[in-house]
Amino acid sequence: MCTLEKRGDIFYLTLTGGGEEHRLNPTVIASLRSALREAREQSTRGSALITVADGKFFSNGFDLAWAQAAGPGTAAARDRLDHMVSLFKPVVADLVSLPMPTIAALTGHAAAAGMVLALSHDYVLMRSDRGVLYMSELDIGLTFPDYFTAIMRSKVGSPAARRDVMLKAAKLRATEAVAMGIIDSAYDSAQAVLEAAVRLGGELVKRKWNGEIYAEIRKALYPELCGMLGLTNKVVVASSRL
Question: Which biological process, per GO, is one annotated for this protein (predicted)?
């Protein structure tokens, strides 16, 4: 599950469910979508969203135990995994189209779908003393969903970095991820990450941007990803000077 709290102009989305690892199962995914829908409905000019998680994990990806509960290695287990892949895709679309800047504050591990969740935000901040970014699919014998690959191509600019993430299953510490251009900045503690996220959020909301304009510009920035997510662009004119 997750919670959503608004303080001033900043929404705080906190992952609380899916166990200590914040695994993404249908219940948690539904809770995420509900919170993002609420943030969208309550957004005003100059809003921002910060996503955090309790404990030492940001999210360790899909709830594979839930899938395997249908019978390890069975078609039913595969169907459950495919179901989570399908359910999670709109979460990424919700974030990419959200009418406000978004910040992921990683106070712990972000793996597989958890890393995709982080990269779906505009800014990613991470602690350097604990936690890794890790796309585990190669190690556990799964291919990448098409929108996972699209977000890697959209958000990880270096071909060498994409190779290490996808074809080496590298476990990246924050300082490595900053050097590779995958995340924005690293901090020496969970508290420092949260404080930095709040500072950044405060700077962004002061700009008082029109959220609809912001979302359309973001979508235009990632055409391949938006094509995979089924998001279309529209022209919006909100300036009184035109």
Answer: fatty acid beta-oxidation
Domains of the chain with CATH codes: 2-229 (3.90.226.10)
Distance CA 235, CA 80 (A): 38
C-alpha distance across the termini of the chain, in Å: 44
168-208 pLDDT tens trace: 999 999 999 999 999 999 999 999 999 999 999 999 999 99
pTM confidence score: 0.96
In whole angstroms, what is the distance from residue 108 CA to residue 38 CA? 26
DSSP secondary structure letters along 186-236: EESSHHHHHHHHHHHHHHHHTT---HHHHHHHHHHH-HHHHHHHT------
Torsion angle, alpha carbons of 42, 95, 46, 206, to 10: 140
Q: Compute the radius of gyration of the chain from its Cα atoms.
A: 17
